Amino acid sequence: MNLIRSDLLELNAYSSDHYSSIEDKLDANEVAVDLPLFLKQKLGDELTNYLSANRYPDGLYLNLRRKIAAYAGVSDDWISIGNGSDELIRSVLIASCLSRGDILVANPTFSMYQILAKTLGIAVHSIDRGEEDFTIDLAKAQQTIDRENIKALFVVHPNSPTGNLLTEDEINWLKSLSRDILVVIDEAYYEFAGHSLVSELPKHPNWLIFRTFSKAWRLAAFRLGYAIAAPELVNILEKVRLPYNLPTITALAGELVLEHRSDILSIIPEIQTERAKLWQFLQGLPQIKVWKSDANFIYFRSPNDRLLQQDLAKQGTLIRLTGGGLRVTIGTSEQNQRTIDRIKNQLVL
Ligand SMILES: *Cc1c(COP(=O)(O)O)cnc(C)c1O
Prior knowledge:
This protein is an alpha/beta fold. It has helices at residues 6-9, 37-49, 62-72, 84-96, 112-119, 138-147, 168-176, 190-193, 231-240, 248-259, 261-265, 268-283, 305-315, 333-347, and strands spanning 24-25, 79-82, 102-107, 124-128, 150-156, 182-186, 207-212, 225-228, 289-290, 297-301, 317-318, 320-322, 325-329. The strands form three sheets. The protein has a seven-stranded mixed sheet with strand order 2-8-7-6-5-3-4, with helices on both faces. The chain has a four-stranded antiparallel sheet with strand order 9-10-13-12, with helices on one face. Strand 6 (182-186), helix 8 (190-193) and strand 7 form a beta-alpha-beta unit. The mean pLDDT is 96. Residues 29, 84-86, 110, 156, 160, 186, 188, 212, 214-215, 225 line the site of pyridoxal-5'-phosphate (PLP). Pyridoxal-5'-phosphate (PLP) binds at residues 29, 84-86, 110, 156, 160, 186, 188, 212, 214-215, 225.
């Protein structure tokens, strides 16, 4: 295949498990409950009565950006929108690293940074997180920055798959970095954690925060993410963004959930209560090591993670084998009870 870059031939695409009959899909950190029916109906009504399918979307997505800005507590020109955060990751890589420099990540973490960097021929430097609490080895991170040509670094707050928030030391280190390094803080799980670094953005013009509508907002099917940053950076992202990157219906869906915020986000306390229950169960198993989580999933390790993952899938619960452990999404109360029962079956307690 001489017509394709050889580094791409070796690259594995992002993959998610596919099983034909899964009762409880708890592998992708979606909220387990669909959008309320009245909101689906409103969206259907927009599609039927108002949306002109023959017309391009509003290329600036002004209404949506205005509503997102109000929600995030910034002005409109601090928001850029993406076809999922994945598109924003790629835009950032194009803007900061392409043909110019490398990225830094701390593993285990979200794999898309690495995958998308490689598709663009951008080198990835990864440092390990401590096994006890998954904090970043900051001395190593600093050494890597001093030695290599790092143009951007990606952290998740709280991290996926391990569920931990950035520590104060880590945040202080990010603040200490040269303004020539782009710092991406992915707050995909913000609504579950309640912690954000948005208020720091005015002091750090090299920082960018990503958020998504795929998790707490229950719009994974629509593909919508956004970046929050100083207008100088937002303007750059706007240059890289494909024209009409969001379907009109996706923009409308985003506006709709923001208008009905409490109907959507009111489920979060239940998810947090369920998270505590599942954590308590896992914590009580001598064969399992489990970590605290600020997101809508829990990370744990067992004597044989692959076997446990496969066995749970056979029993009807799909969880994700990733980062040298297992990540289970918090589902409905019934789903979580089945997770507990199925883990008990497998471990023969
Ligand atoms: C799920 C997730 C996202 C969401 O990506 P989209 O492309 O918006 O669906 C982003 N970052 C992290 C760390 C995630 O876990």
